[in-house]
Amino acid sequence: MIFPEVPTFSSFAEEREYRKKHLVAAVRAFAQQGFDYGFAGHLTVRDPEHKDLYWTNPMCVHFSQVKLSNLILADHDGNVVEGKYAVNRAGFVLHSSIHAANPEIVAMCHAHTTYGTAWCTTGRPLDMISQDAACFYENHVVIGASAGAVAVEKQSGKSVAEMFGNNRAALHQNHGLLTASHHSIDDAAFWFIALERCCQVQLLVEASGVKPKTVSEKSARYSREHVGNDFIGWLHFQTIYNHLAATQPDMFD
Ligand SMILES: [Zn+2]
């Protein structure tokens, strides 16, 4: 039966190519979702060989125009090691701090999205009001540090990194959403899309005035473990990847 399988690699070069292609697809998926906001927003994936370097989207290039040949490789100090474009300084501080503090994090996503930003004004974690929200049960955190301030200072990046810990996602108060994955950029990108949707759904429910029923702790934990794990995030993203690869072949230029 045809079913996607997580690939294995015989060399760093092969794995690097895979990670870069999937990073480009994740950025294009963000464009499709309308997650662009000027030059804000950044997605990162760690290099498989040089683990203190990560691939990211170039600053001031629209998400829809990101491709293999304009990705940049940056180090933890914000130096561009490979590529012609600049790195987003604010993005660098947040991402590099979280990557540095949590070496097992492979990939991260951040963007200024409408519903995520709206929900992040509340300073509250998501309520477990759907199976989709349950995928974030005890796996996301509200970060109030540096709330609403552009995170260009190293210290603010550090405090955010400490609070992020091992969670899948953070709701950065007065700022927006962050997701991270120990598995792949595919996983981080899918759960970012899912988290934005969860914020939208909870805002809709609250605006309706209807008191929602909540998922029990046991069911929420079950959902997170069975339909909310890393592999499922990766698997969800393969539908998006295959669609983009077929319809936007220029992303591999
Ligand atoms: Zn931001």
UniProtKB/TrEMBL annotation:
GO molecular function, one term: actin filament binding
One Pfam family linked to the record: Aldolase_II
SUPFAM superfamilies: AraD/HMP-PK domain-like
Domain Class II aldolase/adducin N-terminal: start-end pairs: 21-203
GO annotation, cellular component aspect: cytoskeleton
Source organism superkingdom: Bacteria
Family according to the record: Belongs to the aldolase class II family.
Protein name per the record: Class II aldolase/adducin family protein
The organism of origin for this protein: Vulcanimicrobium alpinum
